[in-house]
């Protein structure tokens, strides 16, 4: 704690000289204890980000509870004329913030940042007590009210102290930087738009405002100075950039926008990055970036991994983005709620397109209700949507706002509320389309600009070939809808069988079933002009305490990021044009009891040459990048080798004479004595 106080004093001296805002991380020095402990005597010292559901104290139990976070801050007397704000980038799910025993605000919703001003609660020249009470229990007035994604609980992202002069660019506008860029018309000739600036002051009615726009190569391409009236309303400054370098997935050009206030010296300054590009929906339903049709090959990302839980940091996002690039996806969907700003900063730089969900979501549990027709619920959903848009509007990689996902049309009619959300999204940002994910019929499919159909035919009912019938009916009857498609299913590596078809049993979800499902859907739906995008669910498994194994296994990569499932290589072969792929399917099933075997290979390097033992087998192209042999008779231990161009893959399998495990007898209690079945 002394180290933290010393740093603050050092920064205070610098701040007093610079007369501009300074931002100090407040991630260290926290003491954590559960509310049920009733006292902080045994509080644990923790560093942010922190979650109690990844804390050893949880001892494997999943906790939905309330935790308290305490910290102390020495605030120098020299800051008495300044303004202080605390900013939290993510608290799951409800946060109440106190300073010196005074309640300064409540924030409801775990996916977005929030800011409270604490100036009038601070004791300058001495220590101050900061307390954050955090609750991750289910509530019917905080979205999401239905999800199978773990809401880990805690201050799971970073926090900071913002110190400004009495007049500043406001950090209070929905937790944003207070500087929003609104491109309106964008072409290779010029980019026109408006820059929205939110100002706040304790004692001034006007100030001098400077706006600068800098090109990717560092050239200043726009500047303007004007007197600004401070009356609680945002300022809107028109701008024009001639011959802009347009942001695109192939060329992610980024501009820097700077807003400064002050006459002779800078009183406050905020800098953001953005990009100029147009997003359109073509007559046939395709997405156009800068006028070019851009089919989306997307993967869905949730918010955790096995090591960090929900506390993802820069290194975690870098590792995940590496796998996004490896599979060849050009888009990601942030499921249920936003990710940290770092991920979108990197997507801006890498040219990865983004769909961010609002938390109006339904999990596939019959006992859940996703929508509550109450003013408190609707207000919270609207608040979170506004925060999502305002906090992420400057990211050119974000190309659509998600309104809802997989709602049921039963009970209270949610459609009027969805229309309000859609209108709000367009009012805040007219440059991007709205999108929703649906697995239902009805009016809700006509609210958002784009619709993505969550499809699962052939998973629990029917055949995967039925998706072709569905696609044809969609083309015939609803071609006016701007449609994308999303699909996926769970597959666990440990759920192996000796035969190609797993034995039917409860919660038995082998990788082979997932693989075959993706093969058929990829064969039938990839590159179909009916869909502006194909979304694979999901890139990674994610934690779900509500499911039998504590994991939703629908990812193409395991939760710990160590194992890559077969279906990953299918999409890598289809999507990754920079790196060729060769992969023998079903290599983990090395013990097999059927002498007749069919071999499958994914290849983007052309027809593979397959040898089984000493025999070379003929392969045929089943679908794009999918190759198969006929069933062949094999026996014993054999090596299977595939070759295509310079690529090689191999596996050794054992066939026949497999010792199967015995079934464990099940004891059942009846009205009579116990019997063994």
Give me the secondary-structure topology.
Blueprint: H1 2-18, E1 22-25, E2 30-34, E3 44-46, E4 66-75, E5 83-88, E6 94-99, E7 102-108, E8 114-117, E9 126-135, E10 159-164, E11 167-169, E12 179-186, E13 190-197, E14 199-201, E15 206-214, E16 220-229, E17 235-242, E18 255-261, E19 268-274, E20 279-281, E21 287-289, E22 292-293, E23 296-301, H2 314-327, E24 331-334, H3 341-350, E25 353-357, H4 375-392, E26 398-405, H5 415-428, E27 434-438, E28 450-454, H6 466-477, E29 483-487, H7 511-525, E30 533-536, E31 542-543, E32 551-552, H8 566-575, E33 582-584, E34 591-592, E35 596-597, E36 600-603, E37 609-612, E38 615-617, E39 620-623, E40 626-628, E41 632-633, E42 636-644, E43 647-655, E44 667-668, E45 675-676
Helix pairs in contact: 2-3, 4-5, 7-8
Features:
disordered N terminus; TIM Barrel; 4 domains; Jelly Rolls; disordered C terminus; Immunoglobulin-like; globular; six-stranded antiparallel β-sheet; alpha+beta; 677 residues
Overall description:
The protein is of the alpha+beta class. It folds into four domains: 2-169, Galactose-binding domain-like (Jelly Rolls); 179-278, Immunoglobulin-like (Sandwich); 281-577, Alpha-Beta Barrel (TIM Barrel); 580-677, Immunoglobulins (Immunoglobulin-like, Sandwich), CATH 2.60.40.10. Helices cover 16% and strands 34% of the residues. It has an eight-stranded parallel beta barrel, surrounded by four helices. Helix 3 (341-350) links the parallel strand 24 and strand 25. The radius of gyration is 28 Å and the shape is globular. The model is unreliable at 1-18 and 658-677 (pLDDT under 50).
């Amino acid at each position: 704690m002394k180290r933290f106080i010393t740093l603050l004093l050092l920064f205070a001296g610098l701040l007093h000289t610079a007369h501009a805002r300074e931002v100090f991380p407040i991630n260290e020095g926290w003491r954590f204890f559960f509310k049920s402990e009733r006292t902080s005597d045994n509080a644990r010292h923790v560093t942010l980000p922190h979650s109690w559901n990844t804390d050893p104290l949880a001892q494997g139990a999943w906790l939905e509870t309330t935790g308290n976070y305490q910290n102390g801050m020495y605030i120098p007397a020299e800051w008495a004329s300044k303004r202080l704000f605390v900013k939290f980038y993510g608290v799951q799910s409800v946060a109440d913030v106190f300073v010196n025993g005074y309640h300064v605000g409540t924030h409801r919703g775990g996916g977005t940042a929030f800011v409270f001003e604490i100036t009038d609660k601070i004791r300058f020249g001495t220590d101050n007590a900061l307390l954050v009470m955090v609750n991750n229990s289910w509530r019917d007035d905080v979205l999401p009210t239905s999800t199978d994604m773990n809401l880990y609980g805690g201050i799971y992202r970073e926090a900071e102290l913002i110190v400004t002069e009495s007049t500043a660019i406001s950090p209070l506008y929905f937790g944003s930087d207070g500087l929003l860029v609104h491109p309106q018309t964008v072409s290779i000739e010029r980019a026109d738009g408006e820059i929205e600036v939110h100002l706040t002051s304790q004692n001034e009615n006007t100030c001098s405002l400077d706006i600068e726009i800098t090109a990717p190569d560092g050239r200043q391409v726009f500047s303007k100075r004007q007197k600004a009236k401070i009356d609680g309303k945002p300022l809107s400054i028109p701008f024009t950039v001639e011959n802009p370098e347009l942001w695109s997935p192939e060329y992610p050009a980024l501009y820097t926008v700077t807003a400064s206030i002050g006459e002779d010296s800078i009183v406050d300054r905020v800098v953001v990055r953005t990009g100029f590009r147009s997003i359109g929906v073509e007559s046939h339903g395709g997405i156009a970036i800068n006028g070019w049709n851009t089919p989306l090959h997307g993967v869905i990302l949730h918010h955790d991994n096995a090591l960090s839980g929900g506390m993802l940091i820069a290194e975690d996002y870098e590792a995940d983005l590496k796998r996004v690039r490896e599979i060849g996806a050009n888009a990601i969907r942030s499921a249920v709620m936003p990710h940290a700003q770092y991920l979108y900063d990197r997507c801006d730089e890498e040219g990865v397109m983004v769909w961010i969900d609002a938390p109006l979501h339904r999990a596939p549990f019959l006992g859940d209700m996703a929508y509550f027709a109450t003013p408190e619920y609707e207000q919270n959903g609207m608040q979170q949507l506004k925060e999502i848009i305002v906090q992420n509007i400057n990211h050119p990689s974000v190309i659509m706002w998600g309104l809802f996902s997989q709602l049921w049309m039963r009970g209270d009619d949610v459609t009027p509320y969805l229309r309000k959300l859609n209108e709000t999204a367009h009012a805040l940002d007219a440059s991007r389309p709205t999108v929703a994910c649906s697995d239902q019929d009805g009016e809700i499919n006509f609210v958002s600009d784009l619709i993505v159909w969550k499809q699962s035919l052939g998973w629990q009912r029917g055949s995967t070939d039925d998706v072709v019938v569905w696609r044809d009916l969609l083309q015939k009857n609803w071609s006016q809808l701007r449609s994308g498609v999303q699909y996926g299913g769970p597959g666990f590596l440990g759920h192996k069988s000796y035969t190609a078809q797993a034995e039917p049993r409860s919660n038995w979800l082998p990788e082979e079933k997932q693989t075959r499902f993706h093969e058929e859907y990829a064969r039938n739906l990839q590159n179909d002009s009916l869909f502006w995008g194909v979304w694979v669910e999901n890139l990674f498994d994610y934690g779900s305490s509500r499911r039998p194994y504590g994991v939703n296994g629908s990812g193409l990569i395991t939760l710990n990021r160590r194992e890559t499932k077969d279906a990953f290589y299918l999409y890598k072969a289809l999507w990754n044009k920079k790196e060729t792929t060769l992969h023998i399917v079903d290599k983990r099933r090395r013990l097999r009891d059927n002498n007749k075997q069919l071999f499958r290979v994914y290849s983007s390097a052309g027809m593979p040459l397959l040898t089984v033992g000493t025999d070379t087998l003929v392969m045929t192209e089943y679908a794009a990048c999918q190759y198969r042999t006929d069933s062949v008779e094999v026996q014993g231990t054999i090596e299977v080798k595939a070759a295509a161009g310079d690529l090689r893959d191999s596996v050794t399998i054992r066939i026949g004479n497999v010792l199967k495990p015995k079934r464990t007898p099940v004891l059942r209690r009846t009205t009579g004595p116990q019997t063994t079945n």
